[in-house]
């Protein structure tokens, strides 16, 4: 029963791929041929006798899974998750739970190992905190940007999961978007989600304090420069 359900889910994925590739409307010759080929295999399964059905089902499922494996090579407008591809590429390096710095990858080691004075270490630590907070802010913005593309992507995710082909590299990143969306829009977040949100809030509040320090320093420098220019003018 489980195998039959799994195969039927794969057929549904094939029907979706066939619909996206287009049987008659597309100017993509290869895509149109693949759509016809998959559609023909699905029809063979649907019209098969009980004796022929297992073999036809296996051939059809194999073709659908092979096509899914090459989804990234499909033409523009035909690829699953195409709407969120730019977000996937960017979000891959923006996971706030990943401690790897995005911009200043050597700063943390410098802070820990350098024999520097406390002021220098303080500014290096500031750079490290800004790096982390930037990831939180950018990730939040990108997840908000993905809202309009989520519905279509959710359909692909559901079909791929049911067919057991949700193991490709983009799925962990897609889950980041969905999980982030769920956390941000949950009416009653759980304790883990609350802790995660509170940690980000605390870091953002620290970021605002750090920004004030930088603003103060820059303002002081501007005032000093302006004072020197006024003195030169008076002299």
Could you provide a short overview of the structure?
With 235 residues, the protein is mostly helical. The protein is 73% helix and 0% strand. The protein has helices at residues 2-21, 29-47, 53-69, 85-91, 107-113, 118-145, 150-163, 170-185, 191-234.
Number of strands: 0
Structural class: mainly alpha
**Would you identify the regions where 5 or more consecutive residues have pLDDT less than 50?**
none
**Helical content (DSSP H or I, runs of 4+):** over 70%
Mean pLDDT: 76
Proportion of residues in β-strands: under 5%
The structural domain count equals 2
Helix and strand run: HHHHHHHHH
Radius of gyration: 27 Å
Shape: elongated
The major β-sheet equals:
none
Cα end-to-end separation? 94 Å
Structure description:
- The protein has 235 residues and is mainly α.
- It has helices at residues 2-21, 29-47, 53-69, 85-91, 107-113, 118-145, 150-163, 170-185, 191-234.
- Helix 1 runs antiparallel to helix 2, helix 1 crosses helix 3 (53-69) and helix 6 crosses helix 9.
- The relative contact order is 0.09.
Task: Considering the chains and any ligands shown, give keywords for the structure.
235 residues; mainly alpha; 2 domains; 9 helices; 73% helix; 0% strand
Topology summary:
Elements (H helix, E strand, L loop, with lengths): L1 H20 L7 H19 L5 H17 L15 H7 L15 H7 L4 H28 L4 H14 L6 H16 L5 H44 L1
């Amino acid at each position: 029963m489980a195998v039959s359900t799994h195969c039927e889910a794969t057929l549904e994925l094939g029907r979706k791929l066939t619909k996206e590739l287009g049987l008659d409307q597309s100017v993509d010759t290869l895509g149109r041929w693949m759509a016809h080929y998959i559609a023909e295999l699905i029809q063979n399964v649907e019209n098969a006798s009980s004796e022929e059905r297992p073999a036809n089902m296996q051939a059809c499922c194999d073709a659908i899974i092979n096509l899914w494996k090459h989804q990234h090579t499909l033409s523009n407008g035909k690829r699953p998750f195409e709407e969120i591809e730019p977000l996937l590429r960017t979000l891959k390096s923006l996971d706030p739970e990943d401690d790897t710095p995005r911009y200043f990858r050597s700063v943390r080691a410098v802070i820990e190992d350098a024999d520097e004075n406390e002021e220098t270490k303080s500014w290096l630590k500031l750079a490290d905190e800004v790096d982390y907070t930037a990831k939180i802010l950018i990730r939040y913005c990108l997840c908000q940007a993905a809202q309009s593309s989520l519905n279509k992507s959710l359909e692909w995710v559901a079909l791929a999961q049911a067919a057991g082909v949700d193991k490709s590299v983009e799925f962990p990143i897609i889950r980041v978007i969905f999980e982030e969306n769920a956390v941000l829009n949950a009416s009653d977040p759980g304790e883990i989600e609350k802790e995660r949100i509170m940690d980000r809030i605390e870091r953002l509040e620290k970021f605002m304090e750090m920004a004030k320090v930088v603003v103060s320093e820059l303002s002081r420098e501007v005032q000093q420069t302006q004072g020197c220019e006024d003195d030169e003018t008076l002299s």
